[in-house]
Design a protein that fits this description.
The complex is a heterodimer of chains A (257) and B (158).
Chain A (H helix, E strand, L loop, with lengths): L5 H19 L1 H30 L1 H38 L9 E10 L7 E4 L12 E3 L4 E8 L4 E5 L7 E5 L5 E6 L5 E6 L10 E4 L11 E10 L6 E7 L8 E6 L1
Antiparallel strand pairs in A: 1-2, 1-12, 2-5, 3-4, 3-12, 4-5, 6-7, 6-9, 7-8, 8-11, 9-10, 10-11
Chain B lengths: L1 H17 L14 H12 L2 H18 L6 H19 L5 H25 L6 H31 L2
Chain lengths: 257, 158
């Protein structure tokens, strides 16, 4: 019924084989490709940043005025806070507590974002040559951003906490209720594996628990927006509003352990 | 020469997709410039070149995506092949038809990638899944005329 020439069949088989090899080799192509693209991506990121500054001039101007007021208020609070830190440190020394070293951070600029809607990731302009390794945590001054999933020589890829592939062991700062925070691809996060009657309320603060060694303890993740019951009725979940605006992130800090 | 310029446009579209396009999100959804160029290449060039452009666009996208296998490369090649075959059977010389074609291609692409994603064990709320597979095709189809017009004038320019 169907007559296929032997030559055509061989050509088809060779093409399929080559294509399969190519598709499997894509992770290997990432490092050289991203190194070449680093320069044009940097230029486009600069243009995007400058264009944004011009387009949103009025909004930024108003925000600046509000932020100036907030800075004065926070300076005052920081002063009090510093006093408390010193007091805490003195008391810890008296009690012979082991001093925890502060986080070592490396600043990096976001030069690219995920091209599709099925994942949340960003590419930064620092890589293995800057001491960045796979599995390191990415944060901003506000809180947790994600973790490094690929580190090339001059660039790295960070999976954001809004990606469903990520799982962060977290606790409620008030009640110490534990759960697992993961992304939903939307703007919010979901905290799952909560008991049937969890001690968690709207506006509670969610931080990293430190149980998962990948993330240092106490990093701010976000605030509880909604608490609900899973479809099975056996456990509950909480919708978390992340403290960092991950859709428009420009700079991150990588925590060097 | 035209092929080289088209190649440059695909490259530029790729760079825009990973940088500036984030400013143009609607309900957190961004259009897929890669698929627009796959459709344009398939409607404009012969099969060999359409496949080459689709291969390049697919590799470009997969390099920036998360995942160990080039799913976008494979699907882009498939869409390109099917569009070239389809354009031999029926005439697609109208903006509405072209937008319809992009709508269907982006919908099928998102459906495939989304289902693979979900069956790989990832949790995606149904609302967000539906939002991506419905909004992205519409958004991408609406952008097509803006991209197609300059590409067409480039192709017919002497």
């Amino acid at each position: 019924m169907f007559k296929i020439k032997k030559k055509n069949l061989i050509n088809l088989a060779v093409s399929v084989l080559l294509l399969t090899l190519l598709l499997s080799a894509i992770p290997v192509l990432r490092a050289p490709f991203l190194s070449v693209l680093k320069f044009p991506l940097n230029i486009l990121t600069f243009i995007r940043s400058e264009a944004g500054a011009l387009i949103f001039y009025h909004r930024n101007f108003r925000q600046n005025e509000i932020l100036k007021g907030e800075v004065d208020f926070l300076r005052n609070k920081l002063n009090t806070h510093n006093e408390l830190i010193l007091e805490n440190s003195r008391l810890k020394q008296i009690l012979s507590f082991k001093q925890k070293s502060p986080l070592r951070l490396r600043a990096a600029r976001v030069i690219g974002q995920s091209p599709d809607n099925w994942s949340s990731s960003v590419i930064i302009d620092k890589g293995e040559s800057n001491g960045i390794r796979r599995g390191m945590t990415a944060i901003t001054f506000l809180g947790l951003v994600g973790k490094v999933i690929e580190a090339q020589e001059f660039t790295s890829k960070i999976m954001l906490i809004t990606d469903p592939n990520i799982g962060v062991s977290a606790i409620n700062q008030r009640s110490r209720q534990e759960g697992l925070v993961s992304g939903t691809l939307g703007t919010n996060l979901i905290m799952r594996y909560l008991p049937e009657e969890p001690d968690i309320k709207v506006n509670d603060t969610i931080i990293t628990s430190g149980l998962n060694t990948a993330y240092p303890k106490g990093l701010l993740i976000g605030y509880v927006a909604v608490v609900g019951r899973e479809f099975s009725g056996l456990s509950s979940y909480a919708i978390i509003k992340p403290v960092v605006n991950l859709s428009d992130i420009e700079e991150v800090f990588i925590v060097i352990p | 020469m035209k092929k080289f310029i088209f190649f440059l446009f695909v490259f530029l579209a790729g760079l825009l997709q990973v940088t500036i396009i984030n400013y143009f999100r609607v309900l957190t959804i961004k259009p897929c410039l890669f698929l627009i160029f796959v459709v344009i290449a398939s409607l404009t060039f012969e099969l060999k070149w359409a496949l080459i452009f689709s291969l390049f666009a697919g590799i470009f996208k997969d390099i920036f995506c998360i995942g160990a296998f080039g799913i976008n490369t494979a699907l882009f090649l498939l869409w390109s092949f099917l569009i070239v075959r389809l354009s031999r059977e029926i005439s697609i010389e109208n903006n509405v038809l072209r937008c319809g074609l992009v709508l269907i291609v982006v919908f099928l692409h998102d459906l495939f990638v989304g289902l693979i994603y979900v069956y790989s064990g990832n949790y995606v709320p149904l609302g967000i899944f539906l939002r991506i597979i419905t909004l992205q095709p519409i958004y991408t189809a609406l952008i097509l005329p803006l991209v197609f017009k300059p590409m067409k004038s480039l192709y017919y320019a002497k």
